[in-house]
């Protein structure tokens, strides 16, 4: 996956602004983390397979692999925003002028940013950090609000699930960074065309 300056079809250098540079660094970190997680998934599945062959199955390896796959999927979704490589129907943009395409891209990126703002608000309510601080513990929060995010354990690992759910707010932040970089590039392109 390439993270060059003209990843969106604009002239080279348009994404070289500060938001684009930050987005590129975040995307590089996401790719490195994604690669490490894929290796961890392979090792987890291999350990589970070998342990079953030896008659001493490690029951937690499959669950760990599934949780790590979810992390990889979320990282990939964020990287798709950074590289504009999500699936799209290009029928309308092909029929528009270059200025029309730039406006359509700006609208599309604005909608992505609105999605992340709404997602961020929902995540804030879900994780309820102020409620957790007021309650003093995850168990007290669950007792007061029926929000079991901090107390619900995984089935075989015995680890609170919220450690695995942290990928959701992380993706919200990284996706918003990538969307902000795309908006910056869109506005730069529109100014260049004016």
UniProtKB/TrEMBL annotation:
Q: Where does this protein reside within or beyond the cell?
A: Cell inner membrane
Q: Does the keyword Cell inner membrane apply?
A: yes
Q: How does it sit in the membrane?
A: Multi-pass membrane protein
Task: Please give the InterPro entries that the UniProt record associates with this protein.
Answer: DctQ (IPR055348), TRAP_DctQ (IPR007387)
Chief subcellular site? membrane
Looking at the record's lineage, which domain of life comes first? Bacteria
Q: Which residues cross the membrane?
A: 31-52, 64-82, 103-124, 162-183
Q: Which UniProt keywords apply?
A: Cell inner membrane, Cell membrane, Membrane, Transmembrane, Transmembrane helix, Transport
| Cellular-component GO terms for this entry | plasma membrane
Chain ranges of the Tripartite ATP-independent periplasmic transporters DctQ component domain? 41-187
Q: Which GO terms describe its molecular function?
A: transmembrane transporter activity
GO BP annotations, alphabetical order: C4-dicarboxylate transport
Q: Which Pfam families match?
A: DctQ (PF04290)
The function of this protein is: Part of the tripartite ATP-independent periplasmic (TRAP) transport system.
Q: How does it assemble?
A: The complex comprises the extracytoplasmic solute receptor protein and the two transmembrane proteins.
Give the family, as the similarity comment puts it. Belongs to the TRAP transporter small permease family.
Q: What is the protein name given in its UniProt record?
A: TRAP transporter small permease protein
